[in-house]
Amino acid sequence: MQDEQAIRLMESKRATKWRWAIGLAAVSTAAVIGGVAVGVRVDGDLATAAGAVTGAGAVILVAALALAWCTRPGQSVEALTRRQGTSRDQLQKARTRQLIIFPFVMLAFMFQAHLAMQQVLAGQGNWGRYLQVSLPVLYGWVVPLIVMGWDWTTRKHRSLLDDELTQSMRAQAMILAFVVLMGGATVALMLGMWRPAYGIAALPYVLAIGGATAGLRFAWLDREAERGG
Amino acid sequence: MGDPRLGSRLKEARLAAELTQAGLADKAGVSRKTINTVENGVFVPSTLLALELARALETTVEALFFLKD
After folding, report:
1. Which residues of chain B neighbour A229 with C-beta distances below 8 Å?
2. Any chain A CB within 8 A of the CB of B63?
3. Phi–psi pair at B44, nearest 5 degrees
4. Residues of chain A with a CB closer than 8 angstroms to some CB in chain B
5. pLDDT per position as a tens digit, B6-17
6. In CA terms, which of A19, A24, A162, A209 is 20 to 30 Å from B13?
7. Distance of CA B27 to CAs A154, A165, B30, Å?
8. How far apart are CA B23 and CA A199, in angstroms?
């Protein structure tokens, strides 16, 4: 009886999430279309703002579609219950999902940042463009913070999220990220010696790719451990 | 993470105790993935974890793990 109640509760929560995802997808689609429509008609700061709205809309749209797919109706109850493990497993799965989604969000922000960086390097920087350049860098920081367990969720559930296997996967992920970061910084330095502007333009990429590497490597190891070890 | 020198009888001991991976994970206070990777020789547990697993299965560490020649 308790199981049936739990399943009904899970189905209800899943349906609510699905409705939220569809609503969010509709709003973000409108933002993308509106941003493009306005962006092609105006110049200057307004065009930058329209670009930011389009980019943010695209990112949210991708996330909303991913959420809608994961919570789509019609999945069997068996599949739903099979996914329910201990809270430790659920929290660790949620962390892995986050570490997969964030690098893709970063990629979308990177596209915007590239355009904004060109404007900044041309001496046409403003707060909007600085913010656009900073966003992928910010995500570049957030991902390794999650991998390292310095985020709020891990601090709150340290006993569940910081087990021995996690520490081992964390070390491997951060080693690879460090190597990528060193390689990227070296390339940025060489570019900078050749054309200083290229060196600066490469830095957001280096930081974002370094951060993404930590997240994706951790998620990869986690999935491997989940499957067959 | 793994080491080819380490042999494991964890799976046999777990099955003998009629426990699932999730059940053993719950008893030992680790994730199911940890049990999975230890059983498959992908992850070498620390002394502490080996002792936790032995306690959860009511056996000794030596009965669970051994050095391969």
Report:
1. 33, 36-37, 39-43
2. no
3. -90, 115
4. 85-86, 88-89, 92, 163-166, 168-169, 172, 222, 224-226, 228-229
5. 999 999 999 999
6. A162
7. 22, 16, 8
8. 53
Give percent above pLDDT 90 in chain A: 35
What count of other Cβ atoms lies within 10 Å of the Cβ of residue A119? Answer: 16
**Of residues A70 and A125, which shows the higher confidence score?**
A125
3-state secondary structure of B66: strand
What is the arithmetic mean of pLDDT over A109-123? 88
- Give residue-wise pLDDT tens across range B51-69: 999 999 999 999 999 998 7
For A212, the token pair is: 């993404």
To the nearest whole Å, the CA of A73 is away from the closest chain B CA by 27
The pTM assigned to this predicted structure is 0.71
Q: Considering CB atoms only, which of A86, A169, A224 is closest to B26?
A: A86
- What single string gives the DSSP state of each residue in A162-226? --HHHHHHHHHHHHHHHHHHHHHHHHHHHHHHH-HHHHHHHHHHHHHHHHHHHHHHHHHHHHHHH
- Chain-wide mean pLDDT for chain B? 92
Contact B28, B39 (CB under 8 A): no
Q: Which are the contacts of A23, defined by CB distance < 8 A and separation ≥ 6?
A: none
- The DSSP call for residue A151 is S
Measure the CA–CA gap between A204 and A226, rounded to whole angstroms: 33
Q: Give the gap in angstroms from C-alpha B46 to the nearest C-alpha of chain A.
A: 8
